[in-house]
Amino acid sequence: MSVANHPGRQAAKALGRVGVWSSEIRADPNAGAAVRELEAAGWPSIWAPGGFDDKILGLFDNLLSETRTVLFASGILNIWRHEPEDVAAWWRGQSAERQGRVLIGVGISHAPLIGDSYGKPLETMRNYLTRLGAAGLPRERLCVAALGPKMLELCAELSAGAHPYLVPPEHTAIARKTMGADPLLAPEQGVILETDPAKAREIGRQGVALYTKLPNYVNSWRRLGFTDDDIANMSDRFIDSIFAWGDPAAIRRRVDAHLDAGADHVCLQVITGPPGGSSAPLDAWRALAPAML
Prior knowledge:
The protein contains 15 helices and ten strands. By secondary structure, the chain is α/β, with parallel strands linked by helices. It has a single domain (3-292), classed as Luciferase-like domain (TIM Barrel). Strands 7-6-5-4-3-2-1-10-8-9 form a ten-stranded parallel β-sheet.
């Protein structure tokens, strides 16, 4: 397989260099208008979460119909909420044009959220990816929310590559070294458009507090050198590493740090407080666009 034909290279080309990651798209009653504006502004891809229910593919049906060129990616589709054969059947049922505008990101979720059925994460994910491939979902249309080395190796083997979440550029460098040059590496980067350090860090603490209770993230941050006190108390050092804050130029510097560390694509999530907002932060996307596109 030539480098250009590697599934990771194909996925990277489809995503573009910088995209949008938005949980609000799930809840915003004006999501259609929001994605049309993002597309018109030139954002090449939009990521939306699907981890807490089984509605993400229905959302993509609607948003694909609202747009013409932008790619939609799931960050992530929870493998406990969808049978792989159903996901592949949904993708096969799309037109060729719409198939080219979808990237299915899948994730193992977290033991505290799933319960006793959580099982062995690597074995469970390997089985799921194998079944997706057997059911007809091409590797170049599939990536995995991977943080640790073994999951990164698995996603490089059976998908286009990795979509790490809540990671700094230091993790991007580690992930690239672990996976090699060809697989897709598309980290999410939380961004806070606030130049006052105290205000920015408080917003960051509101945005990350929920995740400090989830072992997959905690273990990832420990591997990066953060102490349990850093994580539990959400120290300034921790917040400054996980989130990029400041003006658009400062955000661009963090994006460039990920790209320099080996990322193919960086998707930006605007953080304004605790997760769960229901209105897309269009003013922030408008402010960011000139520095990113």
